[in-house]
Amino acid sequence: MSTEQDIIQTEIQGFNPESSSTTFQDKVWQPVSDRKIRIGIAGYGVCRMGSSFGFQDHPNVEIAAVCDVSAERCAELAVACKCQRTYSSLEEMVKDQSLEAIFLGTDAPNHAQHSILCLNHGKHVACTVPAVFGSLEDADRLYETVKKTGLEYMMFETSAYHAACYAMRVAYESGALGKIIYAEGQYYHYFPTPLASYGKWRTGIPPMWYPTHSTAYYVAVTGQSFTKVSCQGFRGQIPHFQPESNCYKNPFDSEVALFQTSEGGSARMSVCWGMRGSAGETGLVHGELGRMNGTSFSPEKDRPKLPDLSKPPLPPEVDAGGHDGSHGYLTNEFVTALLENRTPLINIALSLNMTVPGIIAHQSALKDGELLTVPQYSWPA
Q1: Distances in Å between the alpha carbon of 324 and those of 16, 78, 251?
Q2: Angle between helical axes of 136-149 and 348-366 (0-180°, round to 10)
Q3: What domains can be seen in the chain, in order of their start residue?
Q4: What is the pLDDT of residues 183-217, one digit of tens each?
Q5: Those residues with Cβ within 8 angstroms of residue 211's Cβ, 6 or more apart along the chain or in another chain
Q6: What are the helix (H) ranges across the chain?
Q7: Across 263-275, average pLDDT
Q8: Which letter does DSSP use for residue 276 in this model?
C-alpha cells in the first residue's frame, strides 16, 4: 500500500525507476572487500534523500546512525535505513567517533557548512547537490577543507550516472570523440508552485544556483571545466519567481548559459523551471571525431572501435534507483572509493566545477548577459 510520502516522491521529477534506455554490462558484480563502512545518514526531507540512494542495501555499508531535526522524520529515517541509533541534529551525530563517513541529504543552503563540519570531525562526505549554494566563499572554504583534511568528498550528481552521460564519458576517455567542440545540458522542471523545503529555500531559487543536472553533461563527461560564461534569464509570470516574492530577489524562472570550455569549445547549459510541458535532464556532445546524443554514437561509417558503453553491474542487493538508474551507482562509487582508498569520480574539483559556474552564470544574467570569468578548481590540488 502506497503511503502519502510515496505518492509525493513519485511526483518529484527523477524519483522514478531506471528507464528502458538504461543498459547494463552482462557481468556479475565482484566485491573489492568484505569490510563494512560505518556511515551516518543526515536528512529526510520531502525528497527522502536519506534512504533513496540505497546505502542501507549495500553489502559494504553499515548505517550506524541517522539524524534529522524533526523527531518524526528521524524516526522514519531510522526505519527506512534499518538503524537503531538516532541523533536530533548533525551537530550531535558528527561527534560519534565510530562513524567513518556521513551522507548529507540536508537542505541545499547548508550543504557547504554541513560538509565542512563533517570533514573537520574526521568524516568522509557524500553530499546531495549542489555542493554549495550561491556562495563563492563557501566554495573556496569547502575546497580548502577537503585539501586540509585529506578526506574524501563526493557530490551525488545523478546525471553523471545517467546511461547517456556514462556512455559519453567512456567514449570520451577512450579517445573516440576527440575534444568536445560543443555540448548541451538541459534541466527542465516546471515549478508553478515551489516544492516544500526546509526554510522555504526552494521558493524562487535562482535556476543556475541548481545547475549540476545540466553542467554534468560536459564536466562529468570530460573532467574539464568552464572558463567563461554569458547567461540570459527569463522573467516570467510565476509568482514565486518575482523578485519581491523570494528571499533571493531573483526575477528569473529560467536561465540559459553559453559557456566557454577549458578545451576551447562551447557549451550551452540551461535550467528552466517556467516551461509547462517540458521535463527532463538530458544532454549531448559534439566532438572532433563524433557525436553522442543519448547512448548512440555517430557517424556509423568509419567510426572508431568503441569500448563497452553500458554501465557495470551493481551489488545484487542495490537497485539502480531513480534519476535514470543513477542512485545506486553513486552510492556504489562512493563506497568502493573508500574501500579502495582512492578519490571518487565526482571529487571536490568536479563537484565545484559543476556548481560554481552556475553561480557566475546567474551573476551574468543579472548583468544582462555580461561575459564573466569562472573560477577554476583542480584535483589533486
Answers
A1: 7, 26, 31
A2: 170
A3: 4-157 (3.40.50.720), 159-309+348-373 (3.30.360.10)
A4: 999 999 999 999 889 889 999 999 999 999 999 99
A5: 130, 187, 257, 269, 271, 354, 355, 357, 358, 361
A6: 4-11, 49-52, 71-80, 90-93, 111-120, 136-149, 163-173, 212-222, 322-325, 327-339, 348-366
A7: 99
A8: T
Collect all residues with Cβ–Cβ distance below 8 Å to 220 and sequence separation of at least 6: 157, 159, 160, 165, 169, 345, 346, 350, 354
pTM of the predicted model over 0.85: yes
Where is 37: in which H helix or E strand? strand 37-42
Looking at every residue in the chain, the average pLDDT score rounds to: 94
Tens-place pLDDT, residues 47-73:
788 899 999 999 999 999 999 999 999
**What are 30's three cell numbers?**
565482484
- Residue 16 in this model has a pLDDT that exceeds 60: no
Distance CA 381, CA 378 (A): 6
For residue 103, give the H/E element and its range: strand 101-104
CA distances from 214 to 61, 63, 110, 272, 317 (A): 30, 31, 22, 10, 30
Q: Which of 52, 71, 55 is nearest to 63 (CA)?
A: 55
β 61-67/296-298 pair status: unpaired
Query: Tell me, what DSSP letter sits at residue 129?
Result: S
> Are the C-beta atoms of residues 346 and 155 closer than 8 Å to each other?
yes
* DSSP assigned state of 229: E
At 62, is the secondary structure helix, strand, or coil? Answer: strand
Average pLDDT over residues 107-136: 99
Query: Nearest Cα to 247, choosing from 349, 337, 133?
Result: 133
